[in-house]
UniProtKB/TrEMBL annotation, chains A, B:
Matching Pfam families: Mo-co_dimer, Oxidored_molyb
Record-annotated Oxidoreductase molybdopterin-binding domain positions: 6-168
Keyword annotations: Metal-binding, Molybdenum, Oxidoreductase
GO MF, one annotated term: molybdenum ion binding
Domain Moybdenum cofactor oxidoreductase dimerisation: 189-299
Source species, domain of life: Bacteria
A single GO BP: sulfur compound metabolic process
UniProt protein name: Oxidoreductase molybdopterin binding domain protein
Cofactor(s) needed by this chain: Mo-molybdopterin
Signal peptide feature range: none
Gene3D superfamilies referenced in this protein's UniProt entry, alphabetically: 2.60.40.650, Oxidoreductase, molybdopterin-binding domain
Species of origin: Aneurinibacillus aneurinilyticus ATCC 12856
Amino acid sequence: MTTHFFCFPIEGSVYVPRIFTYQELLALPSKTIKIVLECAGNKRALFHPNTYGEQWKEGAIGQAYWKGVSLTTLLQYTGVHHSAREVVVEGYDTGPRTDMEGTFRYVRSLPLHKALHPDTIIAYELNGRPIPYKHGYPLRLLVPQWYAMASVKWIKKITVIDDTFQGPFQTTDYVYYPHKNNDVGKHPVTTMNSNSTIQQPLHLSTLSQGAHLIKGIAWTGEGTTTAVDISIDNGHTWLPASLQQNSAEPYSWVRWSFRWHAEKKGEYTLLSRATDSLGRVQPPIAVWNRKGYGYNALCMTKVKIE
Amino acid sequence: MTTHFFCFPIEGSVYVPRIFTYQELLALPSKTIKIVLECAGNKRALFHPNTYGEQWKEGAIGQAYWKGVSLTTLLQYTGVHHSAREVVVEGYDTGPRTDMEGTFRYVRSLPLHKALHPDTIIAYELNGRPIPYKHGYPLRLLVPQWYAMASVKWIKKITVIDDTFQGPFQTTDYVYYPHKNNDVGKHPVTTMNSNSTIQQPLHLSTLSQGAHLIKGIAWTGEGTTTAVDISIDNGHTWLPASLQQNSAEPYSWVRWSFRWHAEKKGEYTLLSRATDSLGRVQPPIAVWNRKGYGYNALCMTKVKIE
């Protein structure tokens, strides 16, 4: 498809169903937001017992500047019925599933309050250029603070509905199942957990005696990261890291660093622990769930000083 | 440096020390060999207890066509004293170490019998082109069957010696230390162990019921791979995989495949086990060593049929 002729409808429980063209979108008021996108399965490989799915370690996260139009701006054109409860966004991607017969399009919904948040945008640029194909060209929904499954790529259609959407990527996948063999207590994956990653030094690396900079990132899906504490003795004692915060970028990760003078040879277990403005602290052990979502236990890096 | 003027000496315990130019090398009889290069630390991350070093899983291995001149051809120009025991190859790369003061060049030796083997070559092409810089441009030693630390990049100098080379990359690194806290039983890393990797399906992936192709590679550092057996029940029963062998390429890996009809839902632990022509079989548990070299336990992949 050429973007010149690309368009998508907003329909369903609205006053004026309408088709928006790509060109119209470019002409509407835009905003550019730096947003962390973290896969709900980031760090899945760290769960014990193992969980099935892509064995992500720390790498299923990124951040970028996304430019687009608030979804709420578009919904002002169509209006939304009083009975509306959710906004359903359908992507062009489709495929089979291992657990059901047939093929399925990727479709997800947002509760109305999140769909109407001014920072929930229909993006057409990533880092100042048209969105690369694999990241959702030509249009992608961006939902700050939610795990990235909410940010539907390759938008095909938007539908406002009066009930609760029940597609498999909403009710089967991206659901926390607390138990291995039954579905008791299942609840949907939404906002990101308070989390941090040690980027330097590398796990199980060997360092010389002397000064070393421990550094990394921290992020959260509600409020902002307010503190990162570091332990070099496997959690017995903690000291605060320095944060590079930028209040103009509430949806970006925070870089942190900690100066360590490693005097004695030996093996050390370094830990980082982020706290957000809602008081959510990374736990010592992540809450296990069958599909391996939302891992956010303390980040652990072992090093040897020799 | 420009390759047109590049040259390196062969000196030490030889009759006629000599400088070889890159141009001379190109004019000498060449051979092209498909060679597996496997890092001695490949699969290090799978050792229990953990070992320090780059946390490789299955990816620290590759194969390519290398074109060059047999080292033994060059040594015919210089001659080798009767007292000679080893050939020392020095690279241009240099740097600090965490365990010793000072900077060190990367230098390794080969025993005379391996240096004189006609398939030990000074290579100047990788896959039909000049060797890319990161792979050793302009000249790299290639030592088939040995772990890749032997294949010295960026050759600077070759020296024939009458004794045993003692550089840190020979006597400290690339040494098997069987014990955590003492050096009893230490011995050098040389040839690759009999090994295999399951490439498909991915570990902890979910598959539908029905037919699946399990496939992967197998390789060894002595003789050739003669069999790969597969278990789909965590080692209780084994069946042979089909091998795609090519006797004209004794130093390449062997591709293998196994058709599996997965009838029953559930979790399965797939294992692959290679055997080489010297009767070396992959063990259930790899021989632990402090620096995490030579991991070759059975390759394990868990899948869920749903």
